[in-house]
Each structure stands twice: as structure tokens, then as C-alpha cells.
Amino acid sequence: AQSVAQPEDQVNVAEGNPLTVKCTYSVSGNPYLFWYVQYPNRGLQFLLKYITGDNLVKGSYGFEAEFNKSQTSFHLKKPSALVSDSALYFCAVRDNTNAGKSTFGDGTTLTVKP
Amino acid sequence: NAGVTQTPKFRVLKTGQSMTLLCAQDMNHEYMYWYRQDPGMGLRLIHYSVGEGTTAKGEVPDGYNVSRLKKQNFLLGLESAAPSQTSVYFCASSLTIFYEQYFGPGTRLTVT
Q1: Which residue in chain A is spatially nearest to B5 when comparing CA positions?
Q2: What rounded mean pLDDT belongs to chain B?
Q3: How close A89 comes to chain B (CA, Å)?
Q4: Average pLDDT, chain A
Q5: Mean pLDDT, residues B89-108 taken together
């Protein structure tokens, strides 16, 4: 069975500081990893993904994530946080043995303070 | 492109009533999904489909049924609503498993 863990319910950072939102996963086959962001009363929006290739993936709004196979992690990062980055962030995984099924983490609320 | 649309946006049901939520996508995506979102529990997969005419169970399928008679539509049915089904329901679609999911705006369902 596949699973995703986001160990922090809440992450607080000051504007201009770097941010990290953590994600670890478990799958049977090759992992396909995704980050999404959700603003209040909205659907989820895609930020970035890792399918294969370079372990460092760059995405929308200056976000990036590093795939670490040995630690089964896919942490989301941004060098300099903005107040507008405050939102709920979800990590998700699929694998090539599970025909399309997606599993999401419980989400991490990011708050960036001015 | 409208993307992924959901109908209705809000609904209040009494226990035991039935209803159908409609999801439509105009991106010719093969895969479609229904999730429910509850506070502190992230998104949980109810049912999904990997192509027209196919459906499969997700993590929390009990009390729900689905159909995908047309590629662009994915219907979620509640035959006999229960208060435990009070939630926000999201539909999503993707081209294949290698591509991101596109989400609809959600349906807020309250069962009293």
C-alpha cells in the first residue's frame, strides 16, 4: 500500500526567510511525487512534480523540491518566503504498480508572517 | 477551457436522502477521481476511474457509488446520505499517472 506523511501540521516562517515543508512517502514501485497548494475555499492547485531524472525539481511561484530516494522524502522548499505563500500544502504520491491511484498527505498549513 | 467543473456547489440533505454529484472535464483526460476533504484528514480517495467505462474503489468507498459512462463525466452518488458524509467533495482529472491532477472548485455537502 502507498502512503504519504507530512509530519508537521503547521509551519511558521518570517517573510524573507527560507521555508521547508516536509514529506515522506512509501510505495511499492517507482514513486511519482507531487506538491499541491490550497487557498481557502478553493480546489487544489499543482505546484511541481517528480517523475524521473533530476532530483531537484523546480515549480511554480519559486518553489522547488528535492527527491531523496534513500530517505524516501520529497521536501518542498523556497529560498525566500512571501506572505502570499500562506496556504495549505499537500504532498501526493502515485506509483507505477497501482494504476492511477493517488494518495495525499494530511496537509501542512504554512503561515508566513510579515 | 473550463477545466474541471462540479455541480452543485452547495447542498444540504436530510439523512436517508439520495443525490448525485456531477463532475465534468473538457481536457480529454483519461483519469478522474473523487475525494472528500475533512478537517485534519487531508484528501481521501473515494473512487477513481482510469478511462471511460471503468471505475475502482479508493480508500473510503463505502456509501458511495460512481459511474463513468462518458469520458468527460464522472458521477458520484450517495444512495442514502448519513451525517458522516458531511464533507467537501473534490473531483479531479489527469491525463495519465505521470501528469498532475486538475481539481474542481468543490461541493460542500451537509447531511442533517
Answers
A1: A43
A2: 95
A3: 10
A4: 93
A5: 93
